[in-house]
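Re-run with default settings, no changes from the original entry. Doing this only to confirm the output is reproducible before filing.
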Amino acid sequence: MKWIRWLALLAGIVMFAVSFILPAVSQAGSSSGVPGIVCATNTLRIPWTKDGATLLHQNPLQYFSLLLSGWINPLFLVSLLLILIKPRWIFASLLRYAVTLMFIACWVVFYQIHLYPRQGYFLWMFGILLALYSNLFSRVPNRGREMR
């Protein structure tokens, strides 16, 4: 049943990649959406610009939520690599949980600037979760054996 894990991992990575070309968010009252790649680059870039500095002083919660949202993709890729290399390493598991918790920052940004998540966002989020937790599909019950 190990093939299920690899199938889930591959499906998660494909979902993650495809999500960047789909609309990820839209403004309230607008039918057009912003592609995922634009959201990803903006959340990485804006906190380090003059606008980001202004945002830090005016609304620290929104600033740090935007900053954390921008770091989801790089941390996802690092944690995925670590999970593939050393799946039982505690740091890999902690990083996986940290990435999962970082989705809360996206919702704070959505609320603060009145954005609505679209299909690209949901595909992105589910792809990340499926890839990060794909190893759970191949776990066999621990029958008295020690974890290494």
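The radius of gyration is 17 Å. The chain has eight helices and three strands.
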